[in-house]
Amino acid sequence: MKLNFLGAAREVTGSCFLVEALNLRFLVDCGMVQGGRTAAARNREPFTFDPASIDFVLLTHAHIDHSGLLPKLTRAGFKGAIYATPATVDLLGVMLPDSAHIQESDAKRSAKRSRGEDALPPLYTLQDARECLQQVRGIEYDREFAPRVGVRARFRDAGHILGSAIIEVWVTEYGYPTKLVFSGDLGQPGRPILRDPTPIEDADILVIESTYGNRQHKDLSATEEEMIGIVEKTLFERGGNVIVPAFAVGRTQEVLYHLHRLTSEGRLRQPKVFVDSPMATEATRITREHLELFDEQAKRLAGWHARGENLPYLHFTESAEESMTLNQIRSGAIIISASGMCDAGRIRHHLRHNLPRKECSVLFSGFQAQGTLGRQLVDGAQRVRIFGDDIPVRAAIHSVDGLSAHADQPALMAWARGFKQAPEQTFVVHGEPSAAQNFAELLQQQLGWQVSVPEHGQVVPWPDFLAIER
């Protein structure tokens, strides 16, 4: 057996792992690289394997850095099934066409700028996305299934976003089963809306994320107090707007949840809240349709995020015209818009209009990958380029890590301690080099595990089971 690290190795995005065994090849995730000047070129590179040779794909969740190259994969010849949880299937029906729309729009802008000379076609089209969705199959949490003879798999709740999964896979080779566990992105336990990540008891091979492997989030009460301070000071003291770059799936719904609860408890004066993302609007509707995945506290408030109950100034924009109208608002508004790392979408327009204004604030609620506009702002850039213009940064920039959908270092360690015995080999992925290395050392020192941080493109052979005792 061989495990190929084709993405998210010593970086956070571009999740893709290839497992090769006897007469068997399958992928876990097939995501886009996000952030940095080389991201677009890397996403266009041919796959390092023949897509037609892949038997099936197991998908951890719907975020584009885990799913965004699936239409490219199917267009290149992959004919097998793509397995995911039912909620992920629903979200893919929104996110992949939206991603295709972005690819087509970017290609048109590129062609216009180059006047047709050497213009690149879209990475994939809306038709490619629709055809890809025909190969997606929904499998409920905790149900074992056999994607192919000699393979069993099971999705377990990862608590990261709606439908996110830890994947357990048993591969039988030479009559011996090997259990692989892919953590996917793990959620922070004790957070609202979704349930905590499911503990896993055993694995031969563990592939675990480390996005926040070297950091600890603020506790929830401190996070909420920080949010209150930012909103109150910006809206009601300085007379500005709060711009919230948020992922359409997950972050938008949790930010709304907090704003609703803080307002209904009288801890926050009634703000005017605008959700300016058609995909976030649709994702919020899908979220409401999967109440069975909510924690008990969120179930009690299940109706508010779709209907705006008890949050009368909540408005979901629909058209591009409505979105442009928001830029005429000078004060008193919280504008939540995608993308969460500010590399595409309507958020860039809102930043362009509000970053130069010292009375405004930008509130980041999620991880910002290296090379993204969001990372530039979090790192303190005084000027940024948006739509070819040089924009001064005078607004206050806040990063509220306590709202992150990712488990922090203590939560990652707590989940790892749930294993009754150490995996034979653990690979730390989905983290920038310092975070991944720090977390790997912690696993070695505190748990005594055999751990490595793989390089991009590294191929790890698993021992020949005919030659070892089990």
TrEMBL record:
InterPro entries xrefs: Beta_Casp, MBL, Metallo-B-lactamas, RibonucZ/Hydroxyglut_hydro, RMMBL
Domain of life according to the entry: Bacteria
CDD domains, per database record: TTHA0252-CPSF-like_MBL-fold
Keywords attached to this entry: Hydrolase
Residues covered by the Beta-Casp domain: 252-377
Ranges for domain Metallo-beta-lactamase: 13-217
SUPFAM superfamilies: Metallo-hydrolase/oxidoreductase (SSF56281)
One of the Pfam families matching this protein, by short name: Beta-Casp
Listed GO MF terms: hydrolase activity; RNA endonuclease activity
Gene3D superfamilies xref list: 3.40.50.10890, Ribonuclease Z/Hydroxyacylglutathione hydrolase-like (3.60.15.10)
Protein name (Swiss-Prot/TrEMBL): Beta-lactamase domain protein
Organism encoding this protein: Acidovorax ebreus (strain TPSY) (Diaphorobacter sp. (strain TPSY))
